[in-house]
Amino acid sequence: MGRTLEDKKAIVESLKAQLSETDMAVVIDYKGLSVSEITELRQKLSEAGGVCKITKNTLMRIAVDGDENWQPVSEFLKDSSAFLLLQGDIGAGIKAYQAFQKAAKKSELRGGVLEGRALSADEVKAIGDLPSKEQLIAQIAGGINAVTTKVAVGIKEVPNSLARALQAIADKDAA
């Protein structure tokens, strides 16, 4: 038995609501994945703050129609599509998918949409390769600490070198 028109409208509204809370949408081809593998993917994404949504391309096309931010997703809608809706740390969500894909070797990344712009599969992978927010903060803090350390050593070295120069003059005068 097929879905009723009311069911389809409810699905479209649900998709619109989820997209409104999403920072990035990634489209994958899930053909060949078993139910247990899709469940595993959903679990990994959930841990990274993402959601895996499987719906008909037509329903997703209706959900993004008129929304300039998500309209570019239409170019990836073909065959069997699954949508990874990521929010917060999008790099962690992409890394979770890449870890799953590396193990399963059955899905294919088609592309994604970020801030109203369509991204190729390579661009999505590049976002996944970026360090996490915590790692970036640690790198910045390390850089700031290194600069302050060099300034402190430089400031300390001025009196030391002056003292050595005075000592050298005193030793020269004594000799």
Which descriptors would you attach to this protein?
single chain, 175 residues, alpha+beta, Alpha-Beta Plaits, 2 domains, five-stranded antiparallel sheet, 5 strands, 16% strand, elongated
In brief:
This protein is of the alpha+beta class and 175 residues long. It has helices at 5-20, 35-47, 57-64, 90-104, 121-129, 133-174, and strands at 24-29, 50-54, 81-86, 108-114, 117-120. It is built from six helices and five strands.
Describe the fold and architecture.
The protein has 175 residues and is α+β, with helices and mostly antiparallel strands. The chain has 2 domains: 126 residues, 2-Layer Sandwich (Alpha-Beta Plaits); 45 residues. It contains 6 helices and 5 strands; from the N terminus they run H-E-H-E-H-E-H-E-E-H-H. A 5-stranded antiparallel β-sheet has the order 2-3-1-4-5. A hairpin with a 2-residue loop joins strand 4 and strand 5. Helix 1 crosses helix 3. The model has no long low-confidence stretch (mean pLDDT 83).
